[in-house]
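If it is no trouble, can you show me the amino acids of a protein and the tokens describing how it folds?
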Amino acid sequence: MIRGEYILEDGEVVPNQFTTLGMQAVVKSAFWGENKPWWMGYCARNPGDVVTMDSLLEPTIGVNGYERQLITMDKPGWPKLGLINGETWIETRVVNFPATGAYDVQVNRLFLTDGDNVMSISSALPGGLQTISTPTLRRYRLFFR
């Protein structure tokens, strides 16, 4: 079983929906050496069984500092490894979302993408729709059982 969670700067954990394509990408990375990088981003969307890049309402890239943040599929991108209650986990580096002003879309979720497909989409962030206007730090932890 594969599951994941987003970790906010205050340590609060936000569960997620890990897509079938996301699970397949993890397996391909582990066994076939396909190490396509992933990006973390913000969006406004309710998760569902079919989540596509076109179905995400994402802030405009380049407006007020918004950019998807690169997570390489290697030790610098995923530097922490551990075990909790019998589950092995691996965690991304701290991801910094700079903001030079308010993003042009209010967001309520985080997502991971390989650029073409959605790998994971978070549950709703605490506080509902948010205007991100200051830098935020995020991490992603992936569990294997």
